[in-house]
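Dear colleagues,

As part of the handover before I leave the project, I'm documenting each prediction I ran so the next person doesn't have to rerun anything. This entry is a single chain, and its sequence is reproduced below.
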Amino acid sequence: MNKSQTLSRLAFIMLLSAGVIGAAHASKADHHEFEATLHAPFAADGADQDRPEARTFKLGFDFPLLEREQDVKWRLELVSPDGVVVQQWQGVQRIAGKPVDVSIAWDGRADGLILTDGVYVARMQAVTGDDTVEQSWDISVGRNPAQSMPAFKALPTSATSAASAKPARANGRVVQGAVAATGSLPYTVYLGNLHSQTNHSDGGGALGSCTGAQAPQSAALGPADAYQYAMNKGLDFLMASEHNHMYDGSDGTNASADPAAAKALFQSGLAAAANFNSAHAGFLGMYGLEWGVINNGGHMNIFNTTELLGWESNSSGQLIADTLTAKGDYAGLYTLMRQRGYVGQFNHPESSGQFQVNGTALGYTADGDQAMALCEVLNTSAFSTNTSEAETGRSTYEGACNKALEAGYHVAFSSDQDNHCANWGASYTNRTGVLLPNGTPLTTASMIAAIKARRVFATMDKTSQLILTANGHVMGERFTNSGPLNLVANFASSNGKTVSSVKMYEGVPGRNGTVTQLSATASTTITPAVGEHFYYAKITQNDGNILWSAPVWVTQDSGGGTTTPPAATQLIANGGFESGASSWSATSGVITSDAGEAAHGGSYKAWLNGYGSAHTDTLYQSVTIPAAATSANLSFWLKVVSSETTTTNAYDTLKVQVRSSANAVLATLATYSNLNKGSTYVQKSFDLSAYKGQTVRIYFEGVEGSTVSTAFLVDDVSLIAQ
């Protein structure tokens, strides 16, 4: 449920009066939280010729289930493009049990002075008790010419791919293979909504009568209805994220709940998604959980869980779930998710009070960093009934997402709708964009792999794209760099939109500090300080809609990093395997995002052997080393995982070879075995300058014995020629 549209007092009373939840089990505390929003028109309406920049700002305050009146202290600031507060308004608003709006008529000037042209920021802070909410939106003042942007051809989408690609088959389904844009990145963009509810929890309300959260399991429309609706509206995917504590049919705790019925309902949701996908190639229905409560907790999506996770029990002490996950224990949940390979998203996060670990909001854990891949930076009104994509109720959470990034979480931004009414994906034009390697079918597995790789961007405009690259690395990647770093915000719009403002941001993972603006240009070259950094781009279009790229994470060293230095050439394509099998030849199952073993970087790696039986795996790529090269250096990261206990016998081996184009062995560079097993990746390097002017295969051959398993994990392969 969207924090800014939490269960209303009216809906709660209706549940009580209907007997759906008993007074002894009413979860009032779970829905008791302050809400504040800001609506700031990007452009003036121009109705007043004497005051052409005049417009009205609207502040909205609500505190569902508040028992007695209290004050909200609010402040609204107008910040110039160079960061100076040029106008300020403040006041106190009394609130009780219903929403209250405050309108501020602005004359388009600052203390009577005409402002210079530019993109300003309207920034609100609202405080009541211990609760603080901050919101900010860009606004345009005067004439703002379009920003100069790098040349970039839009990546193909499902629509453009369908028009130009021949159908292929995957698992018996006909799917559309994607066609790469000339000179572009090898990905296809899929656009959808990763946050919504159906009648498996408190969603699915008919549009004619939906005014708030539905009584759990009371509405008419379920997951299959949601998928059909979203597909008809042009979405590529929809996530039904059902509240994990409502499978007992109650928003509190149903003491008479049947655990078998709750678990069966969850499994029926998984089946509904699978059945719909089988019958509708090119669309992906996803089904999972929105775990947690809003107050003293925090909602988070779990995209690929196969089990119902919960903490409630009936009067007989039976758990109303498959697996116990203690309420509010985020550290414990992260550990379970990492063990299971589950992937999560922070939903409408606040900077304080939510996702606490050891008393720290958005507290970091290593398990959480592996499990949590997305942070919802924008959410539209959860109870909107708009079907023309014109909803004006929206909230941003960039501050909280930045706090998560600074804490050390590797999360990308997402933009969702949290639909509770039956308008799945149709309330506004915002979408989450996910990049899949060209030719990869849209499946649950490929979607989860892309999310794990953080190849995701958030957009308020479904017709626009924002892809950040850094020295050729695609957003979501983690890499080591030495020397200059060129950050490029690649923007494309199929609807003729231009860019009014572009900002590059920089932060330090684990610093727990503040994300800062690095530049206001779409192409920025810097030499970072030695250490860890992350960077992301944010663009505001000429219509006020905003896009956020995923970050890149950069480890800057003092020299000798893996990024190609000036005048050097990277000969290996897709060295991190994040584009799947692209550019590689391998035996079945070698290139994988299987969560059983982590990659060195990103989500994909090459996993040779590990079967515990006689087996041979191979992996190779052909490269041509320039005859004029002065050096050619091969490097890769290797981890050996073995159940062998011997310290003397090499039963399982991995050979690293240089082979000819006819597959003749030219040299065996190294042989590794179960004797090299360890718990971490180790980088290996070899000089290949002897093969200048030749086309050769970089070849890995893993041979496993017949009894005990040994796995050879290879990642981030690089061949630099200078």
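The chain has four domains: 33-141, 158-462, 466-563, 569-721. The first helix runs from residue 9 to 18.

All the best with the project,
I.
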